[in-house]
Design brief:
This protein has 594 residues and is α+β, with helices and mostly antiparallel strands. The chain has 20 helices and 23 strands. The two termini are 16 Å apart.
Length: 594
């Protein structure tokens, strides 16, 4: 890896082209049937060549060794995209907060990585406030329209001309506005500028993004309104510069006028017209009434750490805490990292959590859940006793449509930490493009389908579609404390792989002491509800054979485009803060620290 030197605030954006040119800043995954999501890389708004800087260190990029860390750091960023990381880092360099940087990164990802995120979606944020020493969680998940007809969601997938029935009321803009109101330092216009400039002046399309576009070629070529990625009747080639001036104008309008510009007026009218053309029942009142909710975090003390994570309507935190409460650090360490026994034990643990998601979890507004009892050590101890180390539990074999998302982690000079996950759900969401330049989500596909309910012997279960409800998610934005101070922040993307991946990275770091960049890049597995065990082939033939002997049906052929982003915070020998970034190489993630 080449080492970049320090950038002045004025030259930061201009140096972005150098960052994009770094080896490993792109992701070259093997050809596959279909990915969970895709990624794109963008140049700076005005890519003026500059001299290499001094102490800005890119970390965790694909196929690159970790550079020697300095003894003192100010701030750090980890995202799935080099452009977003540089834009977020620029905000920190200009005195912005961790939340400011996360906001700027989220806007940027929505421009260059619309396959899985954008202002037509929603998400969750976990924030550590250094002044109050508290962790707060905001839920800006998409919400079902009040006129929802549950039976319209019964048939999956829905017909192409009815994709809008899966569209929920978008929450990202409201969430960003609330985050900014609580923890923002810079003006919103400053936070939007990098993303808007990239949309207006253009960004090159990465190889990974082109693959995603080709998997959705039929839709793209038949959607003139979203023709920026298609020219002359074909998908743009790798490296082609594309522009989205409509989105640039939309972002600047939101920055100037606030969230009202999105939920009322011309943009709202555009959202409604686009959604209703796809048979969505969203109304003007649904948009105007959207609310960001603060949730009580799920937290536990484990092996000297306090782990704070996302509660329902996400199931991700439940899976993480069930795993922690089922196993001790010593028991896991004795099995060895990524051995057959370790992998099998965690896989069986996570299968139980997937079943709990279907049977017990939903929107807290509609479902009573005793979360403390659900993840209690007593319940987990009883479940652990039923796990066989020589045989595998048969999966229920049901689909969960939850494939997209992006995750961002930021740490600022004052010690504030933001762990932010956003999504439009499946690839390109509902594939409904607004005139304003963004795509609408298909988040209501995360409600449990009728046939899955029947499989579990349920009717109108906890995650059955309901008007005004927020569907169960896999998102797992997490912050870990030790002695009351943040030592790790992480989260992920990739649908049902989010919780499994984030939990595995957390254990790799806390149990085995792996640096976060190594923990993020290490082979991972997923326990899909359709059965079997999806696993990275890099785990090795010996481990795969061991798993098969334990009854696991292993599958290394599925492309793993899930990604975990993480930042660890430690003190060096001199007491200075050291930040290490893990940016997932599976999607060409980019981590920056200064």
């Amino acid at each position: 890896m080449r080492t970049l030197r320090a950038l002045s605030t004025a030259s930061f954006a201009a140096a972005l082209a150098l960052l994009i040119a770094l080896p490993g800043s792109g992701c070259s995954a093997p050809a596959a049937r279909s990915p969970d999501e895709a990624t794109a890389k963008a140049p700076p708004p005005a890519p003026t060549p500059v001299a290499p800087p001094a102490n800005l260190i890119p970390q965790g990029t694909a196929q690159a060794p970790t550079p020697a860390a300095p003894t003192k750091h100010k701030y750090a960023v980890a995202t799935e995209n080099a452009t977003a990381s540089a834009i977020a880092m620029d905000v920190l360099a200009r005195g912005g907060s961790a939340v400011d940087a996360a906001i700027a990164g989220a806007f940027a990802i929505g421009v260059v990585h619309p396959v899985s995120s954008g202002i037509g979606g929603g998400g969750f944020a976990t924030v550590y406030d250094a002044k109050t020493k508290e962790i707060r969680i905001l839920d800006f998940r998409e919400t079902a329209p009040q006129d929802l007809v549950p039976t319209e969601l019964a048939k999956r997938p829905v017909p192409e001309d009815k994709r809008g029935v899966m569209t929920g009321v978008p929450g990202e803009v409201a969430g960003i506005a609330e985050l900014h109101a609580r923890w923002g330092k810079l003006a919103m216009t400053d936070l939007v500028r990098g993303a808007a400039d990239a949309a207006e002046k253009g960004f090159p399309v990465s190889a990974h993004m082109v693959r995603a576009l080709k998997w959705n070629e039929k839709w793209l070529l038949s959607t003139p309104r979203y023709g920026l990625f298609a020219k002359a009747g074909a998908i743009v080639p790798v490296g082609e510069t594309v522009k989205n001036p409509a989105l640039a104008a939309t972002l600047r309008k939101i920055a100037a006028e606030g969230k009202k510009a999105f939920y009322e007026g011309s943009i709202a009218a555009d959202i409604l017209a686009t959604a209703r053309a796809g048979k969505c029942r969203m109304t003007k009142k649904d948009l105007e009434d959207y609310k960001v909710l603060e949730r009580e975090p799920m937290r536990t003390q484990w092996e000297g750490y306090e782990v704070v994570t996302m509660p329902p309507p996400s199931a991700g935190g439940v899976m993480m805490l069930e795993t922690l409460h089922m196993h001790s650090k010593a028991d896991l360490a004795a099995l060895g990292h990524n051995t057959g026994a370790y992998t099998h034990l965690l896989a069986e643990t996570m299968r139980g959590a997937v079943a709990d998601r279907v049977r017990l979890l939903g929107d807290p507004r509609f479902v009573k859940m005793d979360l403390a009892k659900l993840v209690s050590p007593e319940r987990m101890k009883a479940r652990r006793a039923k796990i066989s180390m020589t045989s595998t539990t048969k999966a229920e074999n049901f689909p969960v449509n939850d494939a997209g998302t992006t995750h961002i982690v930021t740490v600022d000079a004052e010690g504030n930490v933001a762990s932010l996950t956003t999504t439009v759900n499946n690839m390109f969401g509902a594939q409904l493009a607004t005139e304003a330049g963004f795509l609408l989500n298909d988040e209501l596909a995360d409600f449990t389908a009728e046939r899955v309910e029947k499989l579990f012997g349920m009717s109108n279960g906890p995650n059955y579609p309901k008007a005004g409800a927020r569907p169960t998610s896999s998102m797992t934005p997490t912050i870990v404390l030790k002695d009351g101070k943040p030592v790790l922040a992480l989260g992920g993307s990739g649908g049902t792989r989010i919780a499994t991946g984030t939990t595995q990275v957390l254990l790799s770091h806390l149990v085995f002491g792996m640096p976060v960049d190594k923990a993020v890049a290490a082979p991972r597995f997923e326990t899909p509800p359709t059965g079997g065990l999806f696993i990275d082939a890099a785990i090795g033939t010996e481990v795969l054979q061991d798993l098969e002997k334990r009854g696991e049906v292993v599958d290394t052929s599925k492309p793993n485009f899930s990604a975990v982003q993480a930042v660890s915070i430690t003190e060096g020998p001199d007491g200075a803060r050291v930040l290490l970034v893990g940016a997932d190489p599976r999607k060409g993630g980019a981590g920056l620290v200064q």
